[in-house]
């Protein structure tokens, strides 16, 4: 089922998610819904708060449905290692049409649980490292425009207000 993706300024987006504790059929169903919703929106990552659920769960697929082996589910993820720097443009399904360069680690290692509750580690670099950091930020209630300069953030907020007024948000 495709869920509605919530947009800024919905407060659920800026609140840290609760840890996932039940690894049952309902969680599997939620994960399936999140992939479906993400593909419908043509995104490469989606975090549970973006469908209004304040939980530490995110899905990522850089291939956008092309390669099933690229599907990643992170439950209760933590970044356990960061290295290097990258500075690239990001977007977010909860901030449609907004794009800005964000400074991130170039390479990260993440520890997370899978949909069955098993712990695993996964490494990513470049775009995947950025997706991990962007999505895990969502679970901490941090939108990417919190990671740009105050000047750029003001411009983004002004752009959003303009779109809201025009009924385009
Ligand atoms: Ni996002």
Tell me what the structure shows.
This protein is α+β, with helices and mostly antiparallel strands and 169 residues long. The protein has one domain: Peptide Deformylase, CATH 3.90.45.10. 27% of the residues lie in helices and 25% in strands. The chain is built from 3 helices and 7 strands; from the N terminus they run H-E-E-E-E-E-E-E-H-H. It has helices spanning 25-40, 126-139, 150-165; strands at residues 45-47, 57-60, 72-83, 86-90, 100-104, 107-113, 119-125. The strands form 2 sheets. A 5-stranded antiparallel sheet has the order 1-2-3-6-7, with helices on both faces. Strands 4-5 form a two-stranded antiparallel ribbon. A hairpin with a 5-residue loop joins strand 6 and strand 7. The protein is globular and about 45 Å long. The two termini are 23 Å apart. The model has no long low-confidence stretch (mean pLDDT 97). Nickel (II) ion binds next to helix 2.
């Amino acid at each position: 089922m495709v869920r509605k993706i919530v947009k800024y300024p919905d407060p659920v987006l800026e609140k840290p998610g609760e840890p996932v504790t039940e690894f049952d059929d309902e969680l599997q169903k939620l994960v399936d819904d999140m992939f479906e919703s993400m593909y419908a929106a043509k995104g490469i990552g989606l975090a549970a708060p973006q469908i209004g659920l304040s939980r530490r769960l995110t899905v990522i697929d850089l291939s956008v449905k092309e390669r099933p082996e690229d599907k990643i589910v992170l439950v209760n993820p933590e970044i356990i290692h960061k290295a290097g720097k990258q500075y690239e443009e990001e977007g977010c399904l909860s901030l449609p049409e907004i794009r800005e360069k964000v400074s991130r680690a170039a390479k990260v290692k993440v520890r997370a649980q899978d949909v069955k509750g098993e712990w695993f580690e996964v490494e990513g670099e470049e775009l995947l490292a950025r997706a991990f950091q962007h999505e895990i930020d969502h679970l901490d209630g941090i939108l990417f425009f919190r990671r740009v300069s105050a000047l750029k953030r003001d411009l983004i907020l002004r752009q959003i207000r303009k779109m809201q007024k025009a009924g385009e948000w």
